[in-house]
Amino acid sequence: AEIGIQILKQNDLLGYIIPDSLLVLSNRKILRKYIYDSTKIREIYYCGPKFDDPVVSNIILVLEKESDEIKRKNNQIILKFPLEQSQANNVIRQNVIENWDYEFLINLNEKDFRILDHLNTNFPTLGSLIESSKFNIKMSRGVELGKDGMVIFCDDCKRFYPLPKKEFKCQECKSIFNPNSIEKIIVDEIPNGLEPDFKPFIYSMNRYVVNELKYIDITKKGINYKDLNIYKNRIVIRQLSQDNLICASYDEDSVTSQSYYNLNINSSSIPEFNNSYILGLLNSKLLSYFFIKSFGSYKKLFPRILIEKLKSLPLRVPRTTHEKLLAQKLTGIINIILKNIKLNKNSTISNLQIISDSLVFELYLINDNDRNYIIKFIEDLI
Do 346 and 199 have their domain in common? Predict the structure, then answer.
């Protein structure tokens, strides 16, 4: 690509069919910056897999050699997608690429860039609040064990380990496991007389509600259960979305697997900044929109929720009297949702979620036009 651009004369055009890894991968950043600093990006067309037995999908990149920096930055990039992808063609100004670490974010439009910039600029991230001395916020994954609860005992180490999927040997001492030493420590019912050895275990969960509980034996030496205090009175966040929305709930004392995150506001200098309030923010359309637009792509809309991405979420800390009043209202609504969802009052919950979303939009200073845009974007996905 560099050689092709170098041999071009001013305003000459060059087209490439190249792997779409160029768009965002960190190891392609140098090339993206060179393209940004040397050309007007006339068009990016995502064509997907086009060759026989493709290993990767592809894009067509049309570049125009341009030495004038102002013309490059003001250039309008045309973004196109195949008809079968059901994604509208789009146009973005070239200078926004610089603000996003030179990633070619073809799934965003100018309005998305503006809204995301507002959220990223004006509100602290969850990660920064975890580090703040004004709050005691903890977030961690659950037990390092699969949902099946299968473990195996090493006769040499005298410790239990999650049942390996590949090599049937101990990763510590390298001895071969005994197949007769396999146990299942997540069960439907607690065996008689062993109640102190077990705790409730979240087996499945939806937004605002735990669907299915099982029980986990917490006595197996070697299994990393984490500090059991992290499972008390906290928000639980699922790695997988529910209907393209962040899936979070509240739970008092159930253990989770490592596919869930446990978030707890242990103490706060602002009483309105509490677990119920944060749950309302997390389950809002606004933060799902933020997550999709920040970390999704033209390939996979809602990516798996990883802990570092969670830490990037912007959270509104209520400080003024008005903000605290809104936070109190949101907390009240969320507490009502938590009570009603157990009664399967779906119509009531839907109405309460609309009120909750409206309060969140107001807290984040989102105007009516942008609210309607975000709501339509999310509802078109559900």
Answer: yes
Domain end marker among 77, 106, 135: 106
In this structure, the strands spanning 186-187 and 159-162 are: unpaired
Domain CATH for 16: 3.40.50.150
| Pairing verdict, β 159-162 and 182-184 | unpaired
| Residue 231 predicted with pLDDT over 60 | yes
Residue 125's nearest CA partner among 317, 334, 364 is 317
Token pair 């900044």 is found at 273
Domain count, the chain: 2
Rg over alpha carbons for the chain, rounded to the nearest Å, is 25
Q: Is 80 exceeded by the pLDDT of residue 255?
A: yes
Note whether 198 and 255 are same-domain residues: yes
Q: What is the 3-state secondary structure (H, E, C) of 119-154?
A: HHHHCCEHHHHHHCCCEEEEEEECECCCCCCEEEEE
How many other C-beta atoms can be found within 10 angstroms of the C-beta atom of residue 362? 16
Average pLDDT over residues 123-151: 95
69 and 30 part of one domain: yes
Rounded to whole angstroms, how far apart are CA atoms 63 and 90?
A: 17
Amino acid found at 73: K
One domain, residues 101 and 197:
no
**Are 246 and 353 contacting, i.e. CB atoms less than 8 angstroms apart?**
no
Hey, what are 259's tokens? 């596919």
φ and ψ at 135, to 5 degrees? -135, 155
CATH assignment at residue 300: 3.90.220
State residue 295's pLDDT score: 83
Boundaries of domain holding 313: 126-149+185-381
Write the pLDDT tens digit of every residue in 75-134: 999 998 887 666 778 888 999 888 888 888 888 888 999 999 999 999 999 999 999 999
Q: What is the mean pLDDT of residues 322-348?
A: 91
